[in-house]
Each structure stands twice: as structure tokens, then as C-alpha cells.
Amino acid sequence: MARLDIFSEQMDRASQSSAPDVLFQLGIQYSTGRDVETDLVTAHKWFNLAAVRGNDTAKTYRVELAQQMSADQIAEAQRQAREWLSTH
User: Fold this and answer.
1) Helix/strand/coil percentages in the chain, nearest 5
2) Is the Cβ–Cβ distance between 52 and 84 less than 8 Å?
3) Distance, CA of 65 to CA of 78 (rounded, Å)
4) Taking the model in full, what pTM does it have?
5) 39 phi and psi, to 5 degrees?
6) Average pLDDT per 10 consecutive residues for the chain, totaling 88 residues
7) Whether 54 contacts 66, CB under 8 Å
8) CA separation for the pair 1, 66 (Å, rounded)
9) pLDDT of the residue at 5
10) Which long-range contacts link 22-26 to residues 24+ away (Cβ below 8 Å)?
11) For residue range 31-54, what is the model confidence (pLDDT) as tens digits?
């Protein structure tokens, strides 16, 4: 239950701020399956958002992750990132 609480707290922080490090950590969580189920589309979305906000490491991780994804998955991740930006 503590892991879920930590994850919920991070999601709240990501929603309330555009802090690149918080967004990057969400990308790490989804790409590695730490505290959540592994989801490459969602991980790419968070790395993309962190990169847009200035996290240079996220740019590298996003490129590496994209090599493991289909074009449709990347397009979906980008769509989700645009949607997130329009509401936050």
C-alpha cells in the first residue's frame, strides 16, 4: 500500500507542476515497472514531457525507449503528451 501512496503522490505532483524531474521519475517508473505495470507508451509520454520541460536525460531515455516501440505506439505516446500539456 505504501508504494501506491508514493505513486499517487508523484502523480499529484506531476499534475500540479511541470517539474521536469517529477515527470522524468514517472517515465522511469513506467519504463522499468517500478511500483506500476511496465507501459512503454506511458513512459515515453512522461519522458517526452520531461524533455520539453528541459530535462536533457529524458531526451536520451525517450530516444532509447522509442527504439523498442512501434510507430503507432510512439504516435500514441505523443498524442497523450499533447493532451496532458493542453490540460496542465
Assistant:
1) 80, 0, 20
2) no
3) 13
4) 0.81
5) -150, 105
6) 52 63 94 95 97 95 97 98 92
7) no
8) 31
9) 53
10) 23/47, 23/49, 23/50, 23/53, 23/55, 23/58, 24/50, 24/55, 24/57, 24/58, 24/61
11) 999 999 999 999 999 999 999 999
